[in-house]
Structure formats: structure tokens, C-alpha cells
Amino acid sequence: MTQKKRAAPASPRTKLRGALTKHLVTDFDAHGAEVIARMRADKPVDYLKMITAMLQQEDPNDPASGPTYHVIERQIVTAPHQDG
Description:
Elements: H1 12-42, H2 44-55, H3 69-78
Helix pairs in contact: 1-2
């Protein structure tokens, strides 16, 4: 007869991450699209930071993980702006 291993109790960090994720999903469902649109218009650098953070993979030292926030920011800030 084999015994099942008991799962290790969740650490406080894991519990907090789960609770925070649950509340963020609820808040995003209610207000997310509106807030993101406002952020894009009012705070484009913060909008860019959010996108960059979401696109980066687990290992930020991995060159395959894509450009960093600073690289993208430099491209946007130094890019010629078009009027109209």
C-alpha cells in the first residue's frame, strides 16, 4: 500500500501572491480596459513599462527575452514625432 505525500503548506509569500492575483483579476475585470486606455493617453511611459514587464521572460539576462524597457524607451523618445 502506497501513501500519498502531503502537499507542503503554502508559504506566506505564495498565499499573498494568490490573494493579490485574485483581487487584481477582479479589479481588472471591472476597470481594466478603461484604466489601460487612460494610462496609454496620460502616462505613455508607464504604459510602456507595463507592456515591457509583461513581455519579458523569466530570465532577464537571456538575450532572447526581448528588448528591455530602456531600449524601447530610447527608441520611442528618440523617434521623430509626426504631427497630425
